[in-house]
Design brief:
A hairpin with a 3-residue loop joins strand 3 and strand 4. 30% of the residues lie in helices and 19% in strands. The chain is α+β, with helices and mostly antiparallel strands. It has 9 helices and 10 strands. Helix 1 packs across helix 8, helix 5 crosses helix 8 and helix 7 crosses helix 8.
C-alpha cells in the first residue's frame, strides 16, 4: 500500500500541474470507487470546477475545488493516479496506448490532459466532501502528521503511555500517527534501535527521541527517493520510485544488518510481515506497575498505636 512518502510524491508532482486547471469532464467507470455515493454525484460535483490546490493528509490525496468541496482519494493497495500527458490536439506523448483494463475513474482537464485512477484490485476509493464533512472525516480517521513539526518526542510519550500493543502496531495505527505503513514502520524502528515487539508503553524519554528521529528520517528519505516501488506503485508520471534500493531491513530477510552485520529476521506482527535486526534492535519490557498499599494495610497503619511516650 502506498504510504506517506508515495502519496506526498504524487501530490508534489500534481500540485503545479493541476492547480488552476478546470475539470472539463469526470468519468467514473467502477461504482465501487465512489461508494456509498453514486458515480453521478462525484461526476456532477467535479465537472466545470477549478482545482485550487492538491495536498495530502495521511495517505489521502486531496483535490480542493473552487466551490469549497474536496475530492478525497485513497490509493489503498494497488491504486495509481497518473497524469496522462498530451500535446496540443490530443496527440499522446508516448507510443503505447494506456491499459484501460484497470481504469476506475478519469478526469479530463481543460488543456486536454487526463488524470487517470487505475486499480487492479479495486480497493481504492474516493469521496466528494464539503469543508465540514472533510474535517470530520479526517479527524475521525487520522492522528498527528509526522513531518509538520507536530510530532515531538514528548507527544510520542503521551500517545504511547499505557499502551501494551507492540511498537510495530502502534506505528501502523493511523489514528495515532498518520501516514506510516508497513515499510516505513520497519525502517523507522531499525533507525531507532527498537524491537518491533516492544510494548509501546515501555519506552522512556530517550526512546521517544530516537523513535521520533527514526520516523522523520525514514519518511524524508522515502520522499527524496520518490517512494518505494516494490509491487504496483508508480508516481503521477508513471515512473517507479527508488526507495526500495535504500531499505535497511524491509524485505531483506537473511541479509546482513547494515549496523551490526547480523542476519535480518522476519516475523509477523498484527498480520504484517515485519523485518528487523534481533541483535541491535532492543526489545523493551513492559514497565511494572507501581505497587500501592492496600486500603486495609493503610487503615491498619493509621489505626495502630504510636510508640509509647
Amino acid at each position: 500500500m502506498p504510504e506517506l512518502p508515495e502519496v506526498e510524491t504524487i501530490c508534489r508532482q500534481l500540485e503545479p500541474e493541476l492547480a488552476g486547471r478546470t475539470i472539463a469532464a469526470a468519468e467514473i467507470f467502477d461504482q465501487r470507487w465512489s461508494r456509498p455515493a453514486s458515480p453521478g454525484v462525484i461526476e456532477g460535483g467535479c465537472e466545470g470546477r477549478r482545482i485550487n490546490a492538491v495536498r495530502r493528509r495521511g495517505k489521502y490525496i486531496l483535490l480542493d475545488l473552487d466551490n469549497r468541496t474536496t475530492l478525497l482519494m485513497h490509493l489503498r493497495m494497488t491504486g495509481n493516479l497518473v497524469l496522462e500527458e498530451t500535446r496540443l490536439g490530443g496527440e499522446r506523448l508516448y507510443e503505447a496506448e494506456p491499459d484501460d483494463r484497470y481504469l476506475r475513474a478519469m478526469f479530463t482537464l481543460d488543456d486536454g490532459r487526463a488524470l487517470r485512477f487505475t486499480d487492479p484490485r479495486r480497493f481504492g476509493h474516493a469521496s466528494l466532501l464539503g469543508e465540514e464533512e472533510l474535517d470530520s472525516y479526517l479527524a475521525e480517521r487520522l492522528g498527528v502528521e509526522p513531518l509538520e513539526g507536530e510530532l515531538t518526542p514528548e507527544l510520542i510519550g503521551e500517545l504511547a503511555a499505557g499502551r501494551t500493543a507492540p511498537l510495530k502496531s502502534f506505528l501502523l495505527d493511523q489514528k495515532t500517527i498518520a501516514g506510516i505503513g508497513n515499510i516505513y514502520a520497519d525502517e523507522a524502528l531499525h533507525r531507532a534501535g527498537l524491537h518491533p515487539l516492544s510494548p509501546a508503553g515501555s519506552m522512556r524519554l530517550e526512546h521517544w527521541q530516537e523513535l521520533r528521529d527514526g520516523i522523520v528520517e525514514a519518511l524524508e528519505l522515502g520522499i527524496d527517493n520518490g517512494g518505494s516501488s516494490i509491487d504496483d506503485y508508480r508516481d503521477s508520471r508513471g515512473e517507479e520510485g527508488s526507495m526500495q534500493d535504500e531499505f535497511l531491513v524491509h524485505t531483506r530477510e537473511g541479509e546482513s544488518c547494515p549496523r551490526c552485520g547480523e542476519p535480518i529476521s522476519r516475523i509477523v506482527v498484527g498480520g504484517r510481515s515485519t523485518y528487523f535486526c534481533p541483535s541491535c534492535q532492543v526489545r523493551l519490557r513492559r514497565r511494572p506497575r507501581r505497587r500501592t498499599r492496600s486500603a486495609g494495610a493503610s487503615h491498619s497503619a493509621s489505626s495502630s498505636p504510636r510508640g509509647s511516650r
